[in-house]
Amino acid sequence: MVSPRAAARQTVAPANIPLICAALLAASLVACLIVAGVPYYVLSPEDRPYSPLHPVFRSSGTVGLKLGIFGVVLFGILFLYPLRKRWPWLAQIGNTRRWLNAHALTGIAAPVIITFHSAFRWHGLAGVAWGIMIAVALSGFIGRYLYVKIPRRLNSVKLNAGDLESETNELVSALDGQSLVRSEDFAPLLRVPASEEIRRMNLVAALWAMFRQDVARPFHVYQLRRSVGRNREAEEIIANIRRLSTLRTKMAFLQRTEQVFHLWHVIHRPFSLSFVVLVVIHVGVALSVGVR
To answer: What is the CA radius of gyration of the chain?
Structure first.
């Protein structure tokens, strides 16, 4: 039987259609750039000026310049997410989960578009800005991973200890009431390091241990599904086991996760602001000397 909280999660309306459409459009644009631009991008810097594609795909070309403008617009959208916390009127638009998903999408699309704008040439101030941009994007993946490791409600409000215990008890009760899957078969999924062991870990070791738990989980679920077969009842039970496994991992590493997440904020914000400064300088210089 599916627990009430799990059922609530399964009945969430799929309101991500605009985001999916945006992702498909971005993927289509990148695919077109790859197909049309590869003959130019693979050329050496010395040979590029002699290519008929040079006026099109160079940074200041007809396509390259538009990609730069589009990339700046995407970064503007990207920074609406942190501004949402400071501007009440913006916070009333949509919910945190959708904003975070849009933030993640633009955080992936913007660096890719800017990379094509640069025509895969990184030198001078623009090269420094590109390197910081990639560092910010990579740290964004880490931040996203840490964010979802902190248990939250569907409206993204962080769960308290009582909520976590209540949901855990519901899942345990649902599993105790079934006889299809033996407890020893799904025991590896519920195994987490002892709290004392986690406290002795440094932050990097704790993050790595949690990551290994998450990577191993799909393989354990696959083995469990093979052993019990595929039917509706089994899938409902496995969904509860997977949810309980995820929840137990989050609870075990919660303190460490929050510590790393706080440290991530300390590092991520200065990098983001320095990137904005470099972009403003880059755009200002390009406008002052003229786009060539």
So the answer is: 24
Q: Return the closest-CA partner of residue 277 out of 133, 83, 111, 173.
A: 133
Conformation bin of residue 112: beta by default, left when phi > 0, alpha when psi is -120 to 50: alpha
| Residue 254 belongs to some domain of the structure | yes
Q: How many domains does the chain have?
A: 1
Whether the CA torsion 202, 204, 210, 213 is positive or negative: it is: negative
pLDDT band at 7 (very low <50, low <70, confident <90, very high): very low
Burial 133-168 (b: 16+ CB within 10 A, else e): bebbbebbeebebbbebebbeeeeeebeeeebeebb
Q: Could you tell me the maximum CA-CA distance found in the chain, to the nearest angstrom?
A: 75
Taking the C-alpha atoms of residue 129 and residue 217, their distance in angstroms, rounded to an integer, is 38
Q: What local confidence, expressed as pLDDT, does residue 13 receive?
A: 46
Structure tokens at 82: 């942190």
Asked if residue 253 is part of any domain, the answer here is yes
The mean predicted confidence, pLDDT, of the chain is 83
For every residue of 12-62, DSSP letters joined together read -----HHHHHHHHHHHHHHHHHHHHHHHHHTS-TTTGGGSTTHHHHSTTSH
CA distances for 124 relative to 105, 136, 173, angstroms: 28, 19, 61
Domain that holds residue 185: 167-260
CA–CA distance, 260 with 268 (Å, rounded to integer): 12
Query: Is there a domain that residue 42 lies in?
Result: no
Taking CA atoms, 50 is separated from 43, 44, 120, 281, in Å, by 10, 11, 17, 30
User: pTM surpassing 0.85?
Assistant: no
43 located within any domain: no
